[in-house]
Amino acid sequence: MAETIPNGRPESANIDGPTNPMVTPILTDLYQFTMAYAYWKAGKHNERAVFDLYFRRNPFGGEYTIFAGLEECIKFIANFKFTEDEIDFIRSSLPSSCEDGFFEYLRRLDCSDIEIYSISEGSVVFPKVPLMRIEGPVAVVQLLETPFVNLINYASLVTTNAARHRFVAGRSKILLEFGLRRAQGPDGGISASKYCYMGGFDATSNVAAGKLFGIPLRGTHSHAFVSSFMSPDEIIEKSLKHHNGSSVCEDFVSLVQTWLDKLKWSHLLGGIFSETNQSELAAFASYALAFPGSFLALVDTYDVMRSGLPNFCAVALALNDLGYKAVGIRLDSGDLAYQSCEARKFFCAIEKEFGLPGFGKTSITASNDLNEETLDALNKQGHEVDAFGIGTHLVTCYAQAALGVVFKLVEINNQPRIKLSEDVSKVSIPCKKRCYRLYGKEGYPLVDIMTGENEPHPKVGERILCRHPFSESKRAYVVPQRIEELLKCFWPGKSDKTREELPPLKEIRERCIEQLDQMRPDHMRRLNPTPYKVSVSAKLYDFIHFLWLNEAPVGELQ
């Protein structure tokens, strides 16, 4: 959906600033300012340039990436303005020979003449295809490079990581992001919560992220809460009102103890446990008195099967007598597959013996340094876990430190430019381009194709030659059944284009899930996934290689 702006001018007043107030025009590398000064000194600063932002390789050994961070980039340019303090600091950081006129130029600078064309946030994307195309005065666009790369790099990496965890866990499981304490600083924690939710997680433990982004919150208690109790005698206020308000149980702790005795002598459960840890029982009873409608207990402080589980069940059954339904347990150590299966048997035995429909389905949450590999191993072993709390490996992207986003000049003053390298993967694809996704008969995307901006649009049902940008023999004809143009205008500058609306986080999350569902299963699998094809048109292929030969120096043999 596009939002029409009068005269095509972006109304920055309608767009809030970046989530992190540290994202300002000076959140950049020094060489962006030295280049900006050199452009200005040479009179080149207003030359019209086109840059592509893209990445070269999919992360985590996979064959897909989720694009994220666009909204923060738009918020950044909508509010791009140097303060006097910032200008003074830039002046002090550059050589004293820099002329005053340059700082006056910075004082007037904004992004009103910048145009941004981008793939929609939450989309599945692939190497070499521009995620964003940024057009405008070369000095201004150059100043956007570092913040844009910074805002896209981690966002896309952690969203992809979240999506991969969701794929392994399956659609039926609840995924909880618990990574704040292990994240790389406050911004890493806030960003991780936002983008893990975008990538398919259901909730976060991060209260600040819940407030900022409307992400559902989850959390119970830690081992410290359990071990802080010494005995049930510590509980002063023991009364609990029935869920429907009809009566009051004056001694909830005694009711819990009664149920624990029943469980101990149960013929289905007999012998599993004898004496449980009474301080743990006190902690559970106390927590249930505080949160009778949302009781979920961490059961591995002392011994899961001999103490934690029967203590939880005693409290849950006491709550049931008063009209409440306990949520479940959390396992945070040990053999999660075995413990979850034993816990499920325990719940089912109670349902059968005491005639409590649904008790066997009491929720089991697992945490404890989980990652893609452990989720996959649990699936292979067989388990009864309903929800996973995942932290360190998720938010730190432990398996891969960075995505490797790059920002390359592809055109200036309507002249295509190319960056060459002995490493072919680092050769850029020149000129202003249009990008399309071609879909086959089964509804799956087959190939992404880049064309020159002025080439005719590909048409449904017409045969299109798709060429690998750098390998002469890799080519194929495609007859698309559906075509999606990927780059849309999110910031029109002074053009008469309409601006795409920035959707809310929940819509981006839904788009991400929908996009992943459209992918062919062999592109998604963890082991040996099939590479997705990224191509160029025959005309663009010829032009790339013409420009390559034109720009590469000819060697001379002595």
UniProtKB/TrEMBL annotation:
Keywords: Glycosyltransferase, Ligase, Magnesium, Manganese, Metal-binding, Phosphoprotein, Pyridine nucleotide biosynthesis, Transferase. GO terms for biological process: NAD+ biosynthetic process via the salvage pathway. Its EC number is 6.3.4.21. InterPro entries: Aldolase_TIM, N/Namide_PRibTrfase, NAPRTase_C, NAPRTase_N, Nic_PRibTrfase-Fam, Nic_PRibTrfase_pncB, Nicotinate_pribotase-like_C. It comes from the Eukaryota. GO terms for molecular function: glycosyltransferase activity; metal ion binding; nicotinate phosphoribosyltransferase activity. SUPFAM superfamilies: Nicotinate/Quinolinate PRTase C-terminal domain-like, Nicotinate/Quinolinate PRTase N-terminal domain-like. Pathway: Cofactor biosynthesis; NAD(+) biosynthesis; nicotinate D-ribonucleotide from nicotinate: step 1/1. This is Nicotinate phosphoribosyltransferase. It comes from Solanum pinnatisectum (tansyleaf nightshade).
